[in-house]
Design goal:
The protein is an alpha/beta fold and 353 residues long. The chain has 2 domains: 13-159, 3-Layer(aba) Sandwich (Rossmann fold), CATH 3.40.50.1970; 163-348, Up-down Bundle (Dehydroquinate synthase-like, alpha domain). It is 52% helix and 12% strand. A 6-stranded parallel β-sheet has the order 1-8-5-4-2-3, sandwiched between helices. α4 links the parallel β4 and β5. α10 crosses α11 (268-284) and α11 (268-284) packs antiparallel against α12 (290-299). The N and C termini lie far apart (56 Å).
Amino acid sequence: MFEKSTWIRLPRNVVVGHGVRDEVLDVVDDLHLQGRPLFITSPTPREVAADPIAADFEAAGIDPAIVTIEKATFDAVERVIEAAEAEEVSYLVGIGGGKAIDIAKLASHHLDMGFLSVPTAASHDGIVSNRGSVPDGDSRHSVAAEPPLAVVADTGILAEAPWDLTTAGCADIISNYTAVMDWRLAQRLQDVEYSEYAAALSEMTAEILVDNADLIRPGLEESAWVVTKALMSSGVAMSIAGSSRPASGAEHLFSHQLDRLAPEAALHGHQVGVGSIMTAYLHQGENGIWRDIRDALSSIDAPTTAAELGIDDETIIESLTTCHEIRDRYTILGNGMNERAARDVATKTGVID
């Protein structure tokens, strides 16, 4: 007897392109959202996006409350929740990079209140997914939440974001290759629930970026368009799967451990990109796709070595040998690598000298 079922929650509207910052109010109207919003943003995104959007709302007779956050922490989430309750708002709007949107996402989940995602940097696939990631002490937690009601991504703003944020977003997407490899391995060896559709979408997204890496350049809206659509697809794959599996495998465990061992040394996307080079080698060996991943990262100026990450070789080795302990997620790392094996893969892939 067939008893399988699923509940896929996706954004109702996705608006991407030049000048769409001016359409946020139209999106709110289309969603039939009523009442006062709370904008969650950070200093630079407030200047380039949140304040102009607030002016549009005020011209329409709506007075948005605004919370500006400096860092993504659970304390910041609590601050947003308290502000939402005090201001008696009806919905949230996350405007900024990963930290503002993740905080809005987690706060909206707690409040059982819808939110809109308005990214100002194409730095990771959280702009559309149902997962939120917030640092907690020396670790980072990925938490189940609700996807945004809508995403409004202005490619003009995204193209002007710092280039390293865009390359981090690209690297995050390219690492989907190894995340899906780990997912399939876990399905075969541990009978982990697996979605062919979500896996195919995630892999296709990574493939598009690898195939178009030579076309992704700073300051080009066309590049922002390609990267943003890829981030959207990756986030949707996670929503379809009901987990982060389509976009998070051993390379993410490696990155999370680096966050503990070398806090804020490098961007998340750059760390998972380097991790993906090594885990691709572990999956497929010398003749696998690890070189394609490395070359694609290199072509967009993303780091491919420990030195380019600004992290010493020994920290890379320590992360590889201990990151399997972070969470109960089966990957190619299994029960862990010993130091000799870790040093071997890091050396053969050129991550360390």
